[in-house]
Design a protein that fits this description.
This protein has 28 helices and 16 strands. By secondary structure, the chain is an alpha/beta fold. The strands form three sheets. Strands 1, 2, 3, 4, 5, 6, 9, 10, 11, 12, 15 and 16 form a twelve-stranded mixed β-sheet that branches. The longest helix is centred in the first third of the chain and has 26 residues. It comes from Streptomyces cheonanensis.
Length: about 775
């Protein structure tokens, strides 16, 4: 069970080195291995948050789109009308159509070969004109666009097959029409020149006394050769080969042709770029491991990421080739040696770095381009930070936090991300073997402890970070609190070369005379006279009634009682600080489960403050750094809100989960919603929380229809009598309706709708990419 009270199903452990789940559409190449099919699956560009693996882009929304019945009825009517016009022409009722022939004098040629040829060609062109005119009247282009996916599916081709260019279609059609004209004139006996080679080669004795068997075989062979020669000539002239290669059925070896991006993906599946760069051996080795199943999707993504680095630095090509030939699919493995997670509870696409969290509901409240589409999260949107608000049991942990954490751990194994996931042991953020470092607060068996100063080397910075954690959620002046801490941290660091631990700092804030006397004496030995003056200032301030020392000591006591420093076990553990996020680390921090609620809040604030400071100071920002807080209660302070706005340019993001916005100070709620780019409101939120989301999502223009009913007083005696009889039997008076349509500006989602009309297991989600592309709020069914 998760912290939100949601019962989690036991995940199924996938077999090692298997390809990820294939998309909904038919595979591009049924005979190919699973990983090859997965790598070749189209991933067209889509809006923010749309799952791209196997995605089929929707046609542009047409407000005047015809219904199926109207479209098919219009097409049938146009077909019948065109057939009627041709029938009238064929039966000599439309003699005006032949006027151009009369003006050209073609009628005077009579039943000669030229006259019949011109007349037949003219009739075929007239049929083409009828097809064009009545095709446009019958909406033939729209009919084809609507049924094109069905036709492609019958041919076994992917729905995303790229259509042909207009010039290619016109050329191929013109060649087909010309072929029909030549074929009919040849085989109806109008043209006989093509039979001259047959008459010249076949002896007269074969046909003078009747067709012999030899003559029958000879002229049939001649017919076939002529038909093949005609098809070859017209095919070359009309470019039929292009059409065949694009729309060849799958059962004949065809696989369609996607967009240029899809063709590039197919080349990458065969490692063509690596082969063209001169490393043909490495390319063949990788392609072989893909076909044999020795490579997983994570191996593919990891090696491709390494190859992108080589393309930027060509001098490393030899090292890349040597590593691939030596280790194969295990090349460039993560420092932990792991090549995959033992458990995957969500669907991942490691090429687009997306994790699927649900499907957008197909209803009018959702934007057209999102209706019915699968919704996914990736670093492109998580880089603007995500705020998820919902009551316990709404699915925050199991359906959002856990999949996002799992995805970031996979990205870390490919060398593209670093993640720190924070929650209690009951949060089930992932199994132990999914992380490189696990910090268990209060557990003496833990191999690591948290650095309370976040790896800061500067005294003032360390004091500011610790002050933010201790009293950041109160009205205490943070600068004063940081100054108090710096008056003790600085001298301790000058005397002993390191910052004090939580027990030592607490004792000094409590004014422990023995410890302060020893520190003063050691400062004298070290010659740090300026730091002795800091101790003197601290001693004078400790005499004031409003001194912050005791309050800070009480907050440190909360951490000490929760086992933050592990007591004597701290000597056997290694400190972990968020300044190490320059490496692809997977870190999980287990907070104290029970009895230390205030200590959990202090640690959460500490981690959020340290994270925002550490990622902004990273010299190397190539890795995407993420902090996932399963419960961000009391973690939001003015400093952390400012820090969240600095994560986007630092290639970092935070995922914050709250039970309610009441856990955030009232003055910071609007600022928090403005600082994050992705907002998620789960079912069951209160109306007060919904009001903040409604204001954040703003308004949109919509059409409002007002229907007014008025009594019908029109007509003469008969109509009035009829209405009177109707009212006598039905009890309802006849009315007329008038409809007024106007454009009004309304909230995208009102507070009432968010609080009462979001079904269970659903959430309303809006996403913004790091490039600034903002998406509308979308109702999503999670899972």
């Amino acid at each position: 069970m998760t912290t939100d009270g949601e019962v989690r199903r036991t995940p199924v452990v996938p077999p090692q080195h298997t390809a990820p789940p294939l998309p909904r559409q038919e595979p591009a190449e049924p005979a190919a291995p699973p990983l090859v099919r997965w790598a070749r699956t189209p991933r067209p560009a889509a809006g923010a948050g749309i799952w791209r693996l196997g995605h089929v882009p929707k046609p542009p929304q047409d407000p005047h789109r015809l219904g199926d019945r109207e479209l098919h009825g219009t097409a049938l009517l146009a077909l019948l009308a065109g057939w009627l016009v041709w029938s009238l022409y064929d039966n000599r009722y439309l003699r005006a159509v032949d006027w151009p022939l009369d003006w050209a004098g073609a009628r005077s040629w009579g039943p000669t070969t030229a006259g019949i040829s011109v007349l037949h060609t003219y009739q075929v062109l007239f049929i083409c004109l009828l097809a064009y005119v009545f095709g446009r009247l019958g909406h033939a282009p729209e009919l084809w666009r609507r049924h094109r996916p069905t036709a492609l599916r019958l041919l076994g081709l992917p729905p995303g097959t790229e259509p042909l260019e207009r010039a290619v279609v016109l050329r191929a059609t013109a060649a087909a029409v010309a072929g029909y004209v030549v074929w009919t004139l040849s085989f109806r006996g109008v043209w006989t020149f093509w039979l001259e080679p047959l008459y010249a080669l076949v002896p007269d004795a074969w046909w003078e006394n009747g067709d012999t068997t030899a003559y029958t075989v000879a002229y049939n062979v001649h017919y076939v050769l002529y038909a093949l020669l005609l098809a070859l000539a017209l095919g070359l002239a009309g470019g039929w080969g292009t059409v065949w290669r694009r729309y060849r059925p799958a059962w004949l070896g065809g696989h369609g042709a996607g967009t240029p991006r899809d063709r590039e993906r197919e080349r990458q599946a065969e490692w063509s770029e690596l082969r063209e760069a001169g490393a043909a051996g490495a390319a063949d080795h990788l392609a072989g491991e893909m076909r044999t199943g020795a490579m997983s999707d994570l191996d593919y993504a990891r090696i491709e990421h390494a190859w992108r680095a080589v393309r930027a630095r060509p001098t490393a090509l030899e090292q890349f080739e040597a590593a691939v030939l030596g280790d194969g699919a295990g090349a460039f493995v993560h420092p932990s040696g792991r090549r995959d997670l033992t458990v995957r509870t969500a669907r991942h696409d490691l090429l687009t770095r997306q994790v699927c969290i649900g499907r957008a509901v197909d209803e009018e409240r959702n934007p057209y381009e999102h209706r019915g589409e699968e919704i996914a999260l990736d670093p492109a949107v998580l880089g603007t930070s995500l705020l998820a608000v919902g009551p316990p049991g709404s699915g925050k942990t199991g359906r959002v936090i856990r999949p996002v954490t799992e995805a970031l751990c996979l990205h870390a194994l490919t060398g593209q991300a670093a993640v720190v996931a924070v929650g209690t042991a009951r949060s089930a953020l992932g199994p132990d073997d999914a992380f490189d470092i696990i910090v268990r607060i209060g557990d003496e068996r833990s191999t690591h402890v948290l650095d309370p100063y976040g790896g800061a080397a500067d005294t003032d910075e360390a004091a500011a970070l610790l002050a933010e954690a201790l009293v950041g959620d109160t009205e205490t002046d943070l600068r004063t609190a940081a100054a108090v801490l710096a008056q003790l941290i600085g001298p301790f660091q000058a005397a002993y070369g390191h910052f004090p631990g939580i027990p030592e700092l607490r004792a000094m804030l409590d004014g422990a005379p023995a410890l302060l006397a020893t520190l003063r004496e050691d400062l004298g030995h070290a010659g740090a006279w300026s730091q002795q003056r800091e101790l003197d200032a601290r001693a004078r301030q400790a005499q004031r009634p409003d001194d912050l020392g005791p309050r800070l000591a009480d907050q440190l006591a909360l951490l000490d009682r929760a086992g933050f420093s592990h007591g004597e076990a701290a000597r056997r553990t290694r400190p972990f600080s968020l300044s190490s996020l320059e490496h692809p680390l997977r870190v999980r921090v287990d907070l104290p489960a029970t009895g230390h609620a205030e200590a959990r809040r202090v640690i959460t604030r500490m981690l959020l403050a340290q994270f925002t400071a550490a990622v902004a100071a990273r010299p190397d920002r190539t890795l995407f750094a993420a902090l996932v807080l399963d419960d961000a209660t009391s973690a939001i302070t003015p400093g952390t809100v400012r820090g969240l706005t600095q994560l986007r340019p630092a290639n970092a993001g935070a995922v914050l989960s709250l039970r309610t916005l009441d856990d955030v100070p009232a003055a910071l709620r609007s600022g928090l919603l403005g600082a994050v780019g992705c907002r998620m409101a789960f079912s069951g939120i209160t109306t007060w929380d919904a009001e903040h989301f409604a204001r954040a999502w703003g308004t949109a223009w919509t059409e409002d229809r007002d229907v007014t009913s008025t009594p019908d007083r029109s007509g003469g005696v008969v109509r009035r009598f009829t209405r009177g009889v109707r009212k006598l039997f039905t009890g309802r008076e006849a009315t007329t309706e008038s409809v007024t349509v106007r454009r009004v500006e309304r909230e995208r989602w009102s507070a009432s709708e968010l609080a009462h009309r979001v079904p269970p297991r659903h959430a309303v989600l809006s996403l913004t990419t790091v490039a600034g592309e903002a998406g509308p709020p979308v109702l999503v069914r999670l899972g």
